[in-house]
Amino acid sequence: MRLLEVSRLQTHFRSRDGITRAVDGVSFGVDAGETLAIVGESGSGKSVTAMSILGLIDASSGGSRGSIKLMGRELLGLPERDMRRIRGKDMAMIFQEPMTSLNPVLSIGYQLSESVRLHEGLGKKEAKRRAIEMLDLVGIPEARRRIKEYPHQLSGGMRQRVMIAMAIACSPKLLIADEPTTALDVTIQLQILNLMRELKRKVGAAVVIITHDLGVVAEIADRVMVMYAGRVVEATTATELFERPLHPYTIGLLGSVPKLGSSLAGESSRLADIPGMVPSLKRRIDHCAFASRCIRATEICRNTVPPLIMKAPAHEVACHHAMVDAMEQPI
Ligand code: ADP
Ligand code: MG
After folding, report:
1. Which of 84, 98, 176, 273 fits a disulfide with 163 by CB distance 3.0 to 4.6 angstroms?
2. Residue 45 Cα, ligand 1 centroid: separation in angstroms?
3. Using CA atoms, how far apart are residues 193 and 204, in angstroms rounded to an integer?
4. Contact 206, 123 (CB under 8 A)
5. CA 210 to ligand 1 center in whole angstroms
């Protein structure tokens, strides 16, 4: 059994001018101890996928269908009371901008210890001890003094660490990080990534990381899922993705990228820009969503949705013209 199993997930939003199909039939799984990176241009449904897993989609405008199983337990349809217990205890999220999830008027020590008190039922003293321990673990110097400080007194990198401390305080089985390093400089990015790797080892958690940075993918991911217009277009191991991307969209995103294993330090390795625009998600897309931007597009691409199929071992692609030919040549 996989730690997390997402099947045919659809998350749609209603508004006056129609329905946005933010996530439209996404399936994937993550094993314990594994790191899955989700990449794709802005607006491709990465954050909505994460929010859906955590049950954080605002029910007044949006809703999810399909199945999301955590350790075999179906999460979709659970009452908010149960979801609140699962969030924080079984899974936690690190958001892109820590200020939005830290309360500015409460000390970081208070926020940390309240979280462990709530989820683990610890007493005040014990919770404070745990808060200091967590800050230590994420590499915040002078944790005992620092717990009295407020979020605005910390640097961006330190706030990220507090966020991570909050997220892992209850040893979640699943950690979801949505562009956790975007706003940070390269040195701090590396530290945060090392921290996450260390924690994965210590806590044995599975990690889902959403990122625009291919250096981050190379550094930390075991597998990669590429999203476009609310769907998965390619999914494989990180090594395979860098060595043999099959979807024209992925090939475009990779542009000129550093090779797997190359260091993050130095130049940026963000996804390349692809000419053209992401299609509107307000209309049902009954063809290849990438067709209008794809140099390989033919008639079939403009009238049939390419299914996500296994084109090579552990390598799924949704493209009518996936470039498998090169691989089929005799060695
Ligand atoms: P990504 O994280 O890949 O950049 P998102 O998952 O945030 O993309 O968004 C996917 C699509 O869903 C976008 O078109 C976005 O405008 C839309 N969307 C996200 N959240 C909402 C919401 N609360 N209400 C309506 N549409 C939304
Ligand atoms: Mg996002």
Report:
1. 98
2. 6
3. 15
4. no
5. 14
